[in-house]
Q: What sequence folds into this?
């Protein structure tokens, strides 16, 4: 019999941190801000405060898990050791489901912005975006993180272009602009 196949470590601490920041900014700030402001109104800061507390507690939990089980899928291993394989399988599926929902949210948000700028349908645009990034991820996780780093680096260029396109001040109430751009309902 041959050796067990293993995955090669491609990402360092810097890439992992930027990948996490990209996900948080993509889903929480750029996509959901308009909807959150529309629903919460002036108390949107309270929504973000609550979400940041939950995110901090989640981060602390993951820090504890990775210190106990420094290999990949620490949540699966933890639940498997504590409750058995069936519960661990459910946890693994829930992690995958959470990632699918987060990625779909970011793709729909991007497609909403894209449709305002280029008059394209939202769902097909989001689907194409997911397919493109899935292909990049299939090629390599390092390449997908490099794209995230690129997007984070040049986000201000995109923001300034949008501000000029809508002929508004960069200090104008961003909530009203975001609500106008992402009014899906």
A:
């Amino acid at each position: 019999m041959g050796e067990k196949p293993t995955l090669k470590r491609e990402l360092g601490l810097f890439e992992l941190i930027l990948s996490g920041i990209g996900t948080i900014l993509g889903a929480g700030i750029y996509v959901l801000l308009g909807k959150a402001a529309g629903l919460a109104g002036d108390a949107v800061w309270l929504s973000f405060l609550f979400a940041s507390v939950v995110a901090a507690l989640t981060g602390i939990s993951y820090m504890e898990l990775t210190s106990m089980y420094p290999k990949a899928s620490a949540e699966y291993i933890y639940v498997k050791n504590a409750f058995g394989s069936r519960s661990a399988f459910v946890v693994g599926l829930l992690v995958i489901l959470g990632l699918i929902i987060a990625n779909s949210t970011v793709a729909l948000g991007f497609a909403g912005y894209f449709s305002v700028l280029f008059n394209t349908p939202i769902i097909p645009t989001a689907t194409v975006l997911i397919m493109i990034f899935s292909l990049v991820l299939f090629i390599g996780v390092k390449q997908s993180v490099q794209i995230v780093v690129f997007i984070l680096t040049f986000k201000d260029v995109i923001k300034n272009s949008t501000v000029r396109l809508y002929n508004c001040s960069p200090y104008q109430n961003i909530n009203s602009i975001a609500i106008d751009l992402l009014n899906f309902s």
Remarks:
- Residues 170-185 have pLDDT under 50 and may be disordered.
- The two ends are 57 Å apart (CA to CA).
- Residues 13-69+100-181 form one domain.
- The chain has nine helices and no strands.
